[in-house]
UniProtKB/TrEMBL annotation:
This is Coronin. InterPro entries: Coronin (IPR015505), DUF1899 (IPR015048), WD40/YVTN_repeat-like_dom_sf (IPR015943), WD40_repeat_CS (IPR019775), WD40_repeat_dom_sf (IPR036322), WD40_rpt (IPR001680). Keywords: Coiled coil, Repeat, WD repeat. One of its GO terms (biological process) is neural crest cell migration. WD repeats lie at residues 77-119, 127-169. It comes from the Eukaryota. Gene3D superfamilies: YVTN repeat-like/Quinoprotein amine dehydrogenase (2.130.10.10). The keyword Glycosyltransferase does not apply. Belongs to the WD repeat coronin family.
Length: 381
C-alpha cells in the first residue's frame, strides 16, 4: 500500500485572476468610515458600494455592465442622515436592497430595473427600533421579507419588511457590541460574535441561546462567525499575541474547537465568505492585498489551506457574487468585487479543466514550433 502524499481535492488548483482595467469600475469615492463591514454588496444585476457623502450617508448602485469611469454626478441612494455602515441585497428580489446607518435606522430600497437615473432619497420602508447606530443588516435566506438588523445598542431585531414591524427583538443576550451575525442555511438559527469574546448560537423563535463559547479567540480585536452548510461554525479572530486565527466549531460541543489555525500578525479583520457548494471559505483581510482560501472537509485537520491570491493594492472592502451570477461555462466558482480607494475591481476564481490545460499546452508548443520554423527559414535564406 502506498501512502497518499498529496491530498486529493477538486479545488487544489483554483486560481484567481483580476479583470482588465476597462472591466473595472473607476473613480468611485469608497467610504472612509471606520467600521468593519464589507462596504460592497453584489447580485447578478447590480453592484452596490458605500461611498463618501457630504451631509449624510449614501451608497452607489451600478448595473454590472456599467464598467469604466463612473461620472462624479452619478446618482446615489441617499436617504440616510448619517453614514451608511452596511448594505445587503435581498436573495429573493434582485432589485431590493437594505441598508443600516449611523442614524439608527434601517431602510429598504427598490432599485429600478435598469438602475438609477436620478438620486433616490426616499426608501420603500423605514425600520425604526434601534437606539444606536445599526452596523449589520442581513436578509433571511429562505423566508421572503424577513430582515435581521443588529445595532450598537447590543440588540438584534428581526423585521417583517412587508408590514414594517419588528417580529422578534433579542435583548439582554449581548452585553457589548455585536461584531457579526449570520443565519444558518435554512434560517432556523443565527450565530453571533460579540465584543465580550463569546460566540453564540441562538434560536430566534424561542429567543434562546442554544450554544455558546467564551473566549473563542482571546485577542481584543473583532471576531467574525459564520455558519457552514453542515451546521458547524467557522470563526476568524485574534490570539492573545495578536496573531490572526481561524477556527472550526461544532455547536453540539463548543468546549474545544474542531480545528484551529494560526495565520499571521497583521491587524486587519478577516472577512469570511463561504461557498456551500464547494465547501470553500475565502478570507479577505481589511487592509490586506490578498485573498486566502481554505477547503473544509470531514478528514483531519478539517480546514485545508488551498492557495492565496495576491495583488499589489490593499483592499478597503469586498463584495461576493452569489453562485447564480457566475459564468459556470468558464469554470468560474467565485467572483469577488475588491474595493480600492477609488476603484472597484472584479476578481474571478476559476477551477482549470484538464482539457483547458491540455489545449493551452498544445497552443504553446505550436507557437514554439512556428517560431523555430521561422528562424530556420530565416537562417537558410
Amino acid at each position: 500500500m502506498f501512502k497518499r502524499v498529496v491530498r486529493q481535492s477538486k479545488f487544489r488548483h483554483v486560481f484567481g485572476q483580476a479583470v482588465k482595467n476597462d472591466q473595472c469600475y473607476d473613480d468611485i469615492r469608497v467610504s472612509r468610515v471606520t467600521w468593519d463591514s464589507a462596504f460592497c454588496a453584489v447580485n447578478p444585476k447590480f453592484v452596490a458600494i458605500i461611498v463618501e457623502a457630504s451631509g449624510g450617508g449614501a451608497f452607489m448602485v451600478l448595473p454590472l455592465h456599467k464598467t469604466g469611469r463612473i461620472d462624479k454626478a452619478y446618482p446615489t441612494v441617499c436617504g440616510h442622515t448619517g453614514p451608511v455602515l452596511d448594505i445587503d441585497w435581498c436573495p429573493h428580489n434582485d432589485q431590493v436592497i437594505a441598508s443600516g446607518s449611523e442614524d439608527c435606522t434601517v431602510m429598504v430600497w427598490q432599485i429600478p430595473e435598469n438602475g438609477l437615473v436620478t438620486s433616490m432619497p426616499e426608501p420603500v420602508v423605514v425600520l425604526e427600533g434601534h437606539s444606536k447606530r445599526v452596523g449589520i443588516v442581513t436578509w433571511h435566506p429562505t423566508a421572503r421579507n424577513v430582515l435581521l438588523s443588529a445595532g450598537c445598542d447590543n440588540v438584534i431585531i428581526i423585521w417583517n419588511v412587508g408590514t414594517g414591524e419588528a417580529i422578534i427583538t433579542l435583548e439582554d443576550m449581548h452585553p457589548d457590541i455585536i461584531f457579526s451575525v449570520c443565519w444558518n442555511r435554512n434560517g432556523s438559527l443565527i450565530c453571533t460574535a460579540c465584543k465580550d469574546k463569546k460566540v453564540r448560537v441562538i434560536d430566534p423563535r424561542k429567543e434562546d441561546i442554544v450554544a455558546e463559547k467564551d473566549k473563542a479567540h482571546e485577542g481584543a480585536r473583532p471576531i467574525r462567525a459564520i455558519f457552514l452548510s453542515d451546521g458547524k461554525v467557522f470563526t476568524t479572530g485574534f490570539s492573545r499575541m495578536s496573531e490572526r486565527q481561524l477556527a472550526l466549531w461544532d455547536p453540539d460541543n463548543m468546549e474545544e474547537p474542531v480545528s484551529v489555525h494560526e495565520m499571521d500578525t497583521s491587524n486587519g479583520v478577516l472577512l469570511p465568505f463561504y461557498d456551500p457548494d464547494t465547501n470553500v471559505v475565502y478570507l479577505c483581510g481589511k487592509g490586506d492585498s490578498s485573498i486566502r482560501y481554505f477547503e473544509i472537509t470531514d478528514e483531519a485537520p478539517f480546514v485545508h489551506y488551498l492557495n492565496t491570491f495576491t495583488t499589489k493594492e490593499p483592499q478597503r472592502g469586498m463584495g461576493y457574487m452569489p453562485k447564480r451570477g457566475l459564468d459556470v461555462n468558464k469554470c468560474e466558482i467565485a467572483r469577488f468585487y475588491k474595493l480600492h480607494e477609488r476603484k472597484c475591481e472584479p476578481i474571478i476564481m476559476t477551477v482549470p479543466r484538464k482539457a483547458t490545460v491540455l489545449e493551452e499546452s498544445v497552443s504553446k508548443i505550436e507557437s514554439v514550433v512556428h517560431f523555430l520554423f521561422f528562424m530556420f527559414v530565416s537562417l537558410c535564406f
